[in-house]
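Reposting from the mailing list since nobody answered there.

I have sequence plus structure tokens for a pair of proteins and want to know whether others read the tokens the same way I do. The first protein:
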Amino acid sequence: MNLQRNFPLKNLNTFGIEAYANFFIELNNSDQIIEFLENSEYRNQPLLILGGGSNLLFANDFEGIVLKINNKGIVVVSEDEDFVIVKAFAGEVWLEFVDYCVEKNWGGIENLALIPGNVGSCPVQNIGAYGVEVKDTLFEIDAFRISDGQKRTFKNSECNFGYRNSIFKQELKNQYIIEAVSFKLRKKPILNRTYQALEREIQILGIENPTIKDLSEIICKIRREKLPDPEEIGNAGSFFKNPTINSENFKKLISEFPNIAYFKQSDGSFKLAAAWLIEQCRWKGSRFGDAGVHKNQALVLVNYGNAKGTEIVELAKNIQKSVLENFRVHIEMEVNIV
């Protein structure tokens, strides 16, 4: 366990923002996590737990310890004729874990292919795409409490999952280090093809009986066409959440904007497509110095090279303001600002 001072973070965040941490420590296994938590000299330092660095934006240097969790491993916990419970440690790359499960024909997370980040970060944000969220297959989470190093297992029902939300973003924010995440996956997969873009691509390719591997490959293709590669243009994927409004406000809005993109929810509310709202406000493809909105996807803010985190934040706030002025709807930032 090596403590490094004044550590550069540019290569550890997908936005590619230049920032520094007072201290940086990389933990490669569970024993090192325990050793860190037992060391009293670190107790009073602000702590930032870093996974793949794909869902945060550094607006400032970090005046504390950045902790990089890099423990690896994939283990089958139990299985029967229909299901397998597989545990992946927090430092596993999410895309590689999805690919591993797809190759085994374990179904449930194939719609989440190509989402950036590590396994340990996925339940914090309750990542989701193409009609599927992590909460749909997550079985339990093993985590260490930062205050005393005690280990706890969280069942799915204890995580308070919501849309891009969980107990680890709310009540227990910055209180636990996730060690590993277990998933309950189907040995006889049931494909989720509810999104029109998926079904349309399946028809174009002429696949009569698609497998989860077919679905995963199609989703990767669609994502690559729509979203910029962080290796080429700094970004953190979708920057804003899709806002949800009640039926009364929706009726008023659709009377003014009959072409508005929306998804009706089971509780009678309506989820609006934030990308549509932003695009109507003419932000798509705009650029201000090295900070901008991607030309193919209005939800994605980008760093073209040397943008500061504060410039990205200012752009995001201006987008929020214009959407509110034009549609009376607040769009919430999905990315964590540090």
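The second protein, same order (residues first, tokens after):
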Amino acid sequence: MSTLILAIETSCDETAAAVVADGTAVLSNIISSQVEVHRQFGGVVPEVASRKHLELINHVIDGALAGAGAAFDSLSSVAVTYGPGLVGALLVGVSAAKSIAYALDLPLVGVNHLEGHIYANFLAEPGLKLPALCLVVSGGHTDLVYIAGHGNYRVVGRTRDDAAGEAFDKVARTIGLGYPGGPMVERLAREGDAQAISLPRAYLEEGSFDFSFSGLKSAVINFLHRAGQRGDTVNRADLAAGFQKAVVDVLVDKTMAAAQALAVETVLLAGGVAANTALRERLAERVREKGLTLVVPPPVLCTDNAAMIACAAFHRLARGRLAPLSLNAVPDLELGEERYEGNFRGRVMN
């Protein structure tokens, strides 16, 4: 009999639910985006996101079950993202998942949002072998994670200031693009010359796998400011292309350096920025040059979704990592950490 997991994801501004069988077969993956709602504000407004989740959550869950041809009584477990993320947004999903688990007397699985992004790679490649190195790059996180085995993570590099996705959004606002910034910068960059404007790359101290994008963001702002003082016209496409290349260069160089240092044969890419075509193509080229294997989820599984949460939950369920009905939202949850009722329970990270 299949293990059928209903998963819920509401960590930011996507209301999502999915039904996945045996951790690999995506029977449904419903995502209701709030982009148009937040576009007028130029970014996600937490209170607005929470209210929209409340309006949408039941419809999205019903849609996931209908799309999978499943009923509540056919479920094996309920899974939910409980951190990190916006606390109000997380609470909507956590409350819904706990209610369903309690009413149906089903196991409840709490999933770390970043862990979900990593496990999107197992949906793309069910036979994926570990260990592997994963670059998790999104609006809130830029991490290099060594995965020794299921649930066994070690963060070997992380951003010291702005995450890559955050830098994309800030630069998009600076050069007059809309929200969300990442896709708009990428679209404009296709029309520009990445070599036309010289921008810095922060590699930090020798041997470090950490990232820093604050200086690059400031360089873009200063470039525009100086051009304005001189009355110069700035080619925004060239600036977007140069900025994107600077980000991609650092992400790829650091990932390849870490892969070599850790002697891994498999590299994974995850997170919303993993949908960026320039990043996917450049990393694939470098991985191929070194004779390594690259696994990248399709774009729909890179951005926030519930199918990835279900996949991660399947492996947590197999290890007996269940959550109590007292599960609460933990907006600052670390990868590899388990916190219930706000109390530290244990770390499975080595």
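Reply #1 (J.P.):
I read it the same way you do. Residues 342-350 have pLDDT under 50 and may be disordered.
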